[in-house]
Design brief:
Blueprint: H1 3-42, H2 47-63, H3 65-75, H4 78-95, H5 103-131, H6 136-172, H7 176-199, H8 217-239, H9 241-265, H10 271-291, H11 297-305, E1 309-312, E2 315-319, H12 328-349, H13 356-376, H14 388-405, H15 409-416, H16 422-444, H17 456-483, H18 485-496
Antiparallel strand pairs: 1-2
Helix pairs in contact: 1-2, 1-5, 1-6, 1-7, 2-5, 2-8, 2-9, 2-16, 3-4, 3-5, 3-16, 4-5, 4-7, 5-8, 5-16, 6-7, 6-12, 6-15, 8-9, 9-10, 9-16, 10-13, 10-15, 10-16, 10-17, 10-18, 11-17, 12-14, 13-14, 13-17, 15-16
Protein name: MFS transporter
Membrane topology: Multi-pass membrane protein
Subcellular location: Cell membrane
Length: about 500
Amino acid sequence: MTSQQVTVSKTKSFMTVSLIELWERFGYYGMQALIVYFMIQRLGFDDSRANLVWGACAALIYVSPAIGGWIGDKILGTKRTMLIGSAILALGYALMTIPSENTWVLFLALGVIVVGNGMFKPNAGNLVRKIYEGDDSKIDSAFTIYYMAVNVGSTISMLLTPWIKDYVNEHYGNNFGWHAAFAVCCVGLLVGMANYFVMRKALANYGSEPDTKPVNKNKLVLVLLGSLVAVGVSALILEYQELARLFVYVAGIVVLAIFVHLIRSSEKHERAGLIAALVLIIQTVFFFIFYQQMSTSLALFALRNVDLNFVVFGTHILTWSPAQYQALNPIFIMLLSPILALIYTKAGKNNKDLSIAGKFALGFAVVAIGFFIYGFAGNFAVNGKTSSWVMIAGYGSYSLGELLVSGLGLAMIARYVPERMGGFMMGAYYVASGIAQYLGGVVANYASIPKGMTDPLQSLEIYTSLFNNLGIAAVVCTFIALVFLPLMRKLDKQHQGIQ
């Protein structure tokens, strides 16, 4: 097979994984756009409980891949586990279509989503890693484009599900719009699975060792039974916040201990890469605290303190619902991803590519600018309402920072971690992200608005104070990342020396 044929084959394989990931993210972000509003406006939660429940759920969603990656690597196979996860996710969204105000219905549905995500997420990312194994510049570029595919799905769903919710509620009443929107998330997963079956031959040469053998039915049954138990445990954690806090902190300690053990017990030539990965994962924790604000404090800021009308030179252009502003994030990701991918590829060919650690430092600086934009906007608010264009400017800066940090998180694992640890390390990365998202929910509660407070002038001061403090925190993270740059350069050189 010629080099051109190999490239074409890898591209088709990459597209197969990217498309099912696109539809999976369609479902997830369509749900995320509405979930905090759903708990507050439909189920009557106060801000604090809604933020913490979603923070705990996001933590579980990101922690669960630590187990899902291991199942894919050692038990069922990467491709099989990914497909089972997508089916479980579809079931979770289907459960959210049940028109009930019983909180246990919500918690059980979210528990199913947690399990499905855990099975799907690490294995999809690990397949991309296997396709571009050994080519660092292509890995950075591939994961950036992969990240763009994620945001194609999330953009469409974040614009669509809030509109469906509003339309159905307006025309049919009884709050059925919420559940109709969640039904669309379920349909997205079904479309993604159908697309995978059509294109699955492109992945015939990729996967983990169990993928090469017939499925072990006994192991499959055990995994499914374990999944049922995990759903119940997840529902309990979402209901009881003390349990959620304990679970998240214990998960962090366990993963850190395992990481340290792997570094100490690994081959000498592997340690530099593992230490570099650990440093970057810790930095990722801080980024995801900022990231979680999009679906908590920023979402509620849009609800209470943003003029929902887009106006250009005094002319009204369009009006968005508060939930649709979250789509600004993936829109900017799609616009910026190809540009960054091209820059990475060209810089890699000329040996001038900025290190991942350098990109992380730059990313934190840009995130800081985004939060300062939100905080400063209060000075130009009219009757407590800021302009929609403030949200566009803030999300633009914030999204560039996300691409430089989160967009390269998976590429960092692929570059620095030995293949035999790939599945676990993908999971460890998501555990770190999950811990951070729970902490992000805790941080968002510093801007929790008491029930009964309806004056935008009062809530504006609370939100802008939080955003300014987050901007300062992001500046501190930038300086910390810069301080670690010399160490990261040394580790990177040691790691590359064994290639």
